[in-house]
Design brief:
This is Inositol oxygenase. This protein has one domain. By secondary structure, it is mainly alpha-helical. The protein contains 6 helices and no strands.
Length: 164
């Protein structure tokens, strides 16, 4: 969720609707599992015959890396990680990029666009989800106690200075 820095004035002060929320593919039909999907009826893509089919501009099994997603904090942080040449494994990048893609990992929508690597990484995303949205503890973490552990992970997977 570090991509939510896009809300901050130093990072563009984007409106909340442009940063936070569920993500979904564009360039193909809007699935009914997308939150508030009924509002897509007013989107011109909804009536465009190129975009309003199950596959739209994509091919079955093309892989999610070849699918254009709606913009949000997930894609921003994914791009930051890639730009900074992170050494995170493929599953880590997949989790960063698609953890708000609820139509996929909650409803199975758009799975026809996935390739084999996506299917493997989705297993890790399902594990991650147990610790994401609505899973927060009421117990306060002693930040100073856990800080060395998390700094070691940051140092392992990211350069000391990030390009945002």
């Amino acid at each position: 969720d570090l991509g939510k820095v896009l809300l901050h004035p130093s990072f563009g002060e984007l409106p909340q609707w442009a940063v936070v929320g569920d993500t979904f593919p564009v360039g193909c039909a809007f699935d009914e599992s997308i939150v508030h999907h009924k509002y897509f009826d007013e989107n011109p893509d909804h009536k465009n015959s190129t975009y309003n089919t199950k596959l739209g501009v994509y091919e079955e099994g093309c892989g999610l890396n070849n699918v254009l997603m709606s913009w949000g904090h997930d894609d921003y942080m994914y791009l930051v990680a890639k730009e900074n040449k992170t050494t995170l494994p493929s599953a880590g990048l997949f989790i960063i990029r698609y953890h708000s893609f609820y139509p996929l990992h909650k409803s199975g929508a758009y799975s026809h666009l996935m390739n084999e690597e996506d299917r493997e990484n989705l297993k890790w995303l399902h594990i991650f989800n147990k610790y994401d949205l609505y899973s927060k503890s009421k117990v306060r973490v002693d930040v100073e106690k856990v800080k060395p552990y998390y700094l070691s992970l940051i140092n392992k997977y990211f350069p000391s200075k990030l390009r945002w």
